[in-house]
Amino acid sequence: MTIPKRYEITDEQWQRIESLFPPYRTGRPPKLSNRQAFNAVLWILKSGAAWRDLPERYGAWKTVYSRFRVWADTGLFEKMFRQLIDDPDLENVSLDSTSIRVHQKATGAKKTPAASSKTKPSV
């Protein structure tokens, strides 16, 4: 078992989704494997970086982007989410139990004009 780099999937995770990726059609085999391209997409999505900032270890950003578009257009990500939905990853869940008291005017209380605005002194 290899230890994945940051933002990459593990061997076990890859085995669960590997069969969902479309097979290669024609021509010579691509230099970039589906797993490597998927890890590149995860890196982009999790880091928030631009496609052009993709590290060289993932290959050419244009290749990764074109494969991402094909996967998105064919509904691969929806299929993947449907298959994995029964096993949620709770790594990034955050619950906040903070309560903040709201000013009475923000809760719909009756609004009355301020005392200073009722009468204006005349000079």
TrEMBL record:
List compositional bias (Low complexity) regions by residue number: 105-123
Residues covered by region (Disordered)? 101-123
Domain (Insertion element IS402-like) spans 9-81
A Pfam family annotated for this chain is DUF4096
PANTHER family annotated for this entry?
BLL5188 PROTEIN (PTHR46637:SF1), TIS1421-TRANSPOSASE PROTEIN A (PTHR46637)
Q: What is this protein called?
A: Insertion element IS402-like domain-containing protein
Source species of the chain: Lentilactobacillus parabuchneri
| Lineage, top ranks | Bacteria, Bacillati, Bacillota, Bacilli, Lactobacillales
